[in-house]
Amino acid sequence: MIGLQIHPCRPDIAETTLNGDCQQPAQCRIQKCTTDFVSLTSHLNSAVDGFDSEFCKALRAYAGCTQRTSKACRGNLVYHSAVLGISDLMSQRNCSKDGPTSSTNPEITIIFKAHRECTDQKVYQAVTDDLPAAFVDGSTSGGDGDPKSLRIVERESGRSVEMHARYMGTTVFVRQLGRYLTLAIRMPEALAMAYEESQDLQLCVTGCPLGERIDDGQGQHGAVDSPEVAKLLLSPSSDVRENDLGQSGKIPKASCLLLGKDAAPES
């Protein structure tokens, strides 16, 4: 999973503001959660060693999926039945709630932190084959006035989404290429470079550490086979369209988090 936090000011001066952005009802995705669980377990054989371990991984992934869609599934009987069923199965198999999960889908989480007079906090989540054109709260924009200071634009249904943060001159691109999700950010160079030495993980400037990259056949980064990978191109001063995400050659492990919450000048 790749997580991104974007924060243009000090946390001590950020405050939530009300806005008049349009709301869209969030879609309950319990059917997709169930379909993914079935795909993860349909090939398992209970007579084979390691069945319980793999089944528990799939159950934890199933539980995580239901948690992410819980707000949109309130009152949905199928959802509540699934939650109870997961709990029963985990008890029967003595599965711990914490531990590794099986996942067929890469996941990206992007957090725009609250900034006074600009936007309240907005969270965007995407997984393979599910790139919503709205934030998790169902809204498509943030901030008062027109045009909005933060808005989502769908370029290709279910395949390409852009988030435009006008208040800090930044655009975030999320796309699906094949089975991978790709993430790119275009921002002012001064914003990308505004960090202290103690903040050593600056992916907008240096990308993922060498030890966290997967060998794509063109480099010598040490191969790690994982379904939870996403190609990453972070180029604060380049045009994203001139640097195709699929040709970046920088593929981070799922554990390589994109944390840029303090990579901005103080106001």
Can you tell me about this structure?
- There is one protein chain.
- The chain is built from five helices and nine strands.
- With 267 residues, it is of the alpha+beta class.
- It folds into two domains: 2-25 and 106-247, Mog1/PsbP, alpha/beta/alpha sandwich (Protein Transport Mog1p, Chain A, 3-Layer(aba) Sandwich), CATH 3.40.1000.10; 30-92.
- The strands form two sheets. Strands 4-5-6-7-8-9 form a six-stranded mixed beta sheet. A three-stranded mixed beta sheet has the order 1-2-3, with no helix packed on it.
- Strand 5 and strand 6 (160-165) form a beta hairpin.
- Helix 1 packs antiparallel against helix 2.
- Residues 6-24 and 220-267 have low confidence and may be disordered.
Trace the largest sheet across and list its strands: 4-5-6-7-8-9
Tell me the radius of gyration. Answer: 20 Å
Task: Tell me which CATH architecture of the largest domain applies here.
Answer: 3-Layer(aba) Sandwich
Distance between the termini: 31 Å
Gross geometry: globular
- Counted beta strands: 9
What about the largest sheet? Answer: 6 strands, mixed
Task: Report the helical percentage.
Answer: 10-25%
Protein name: RGM domain family member B
Subcellular location: Cell membrane
Pfam family, one: RGM_C
Domain Repulsive guidance molecule C-terminal: 102-221
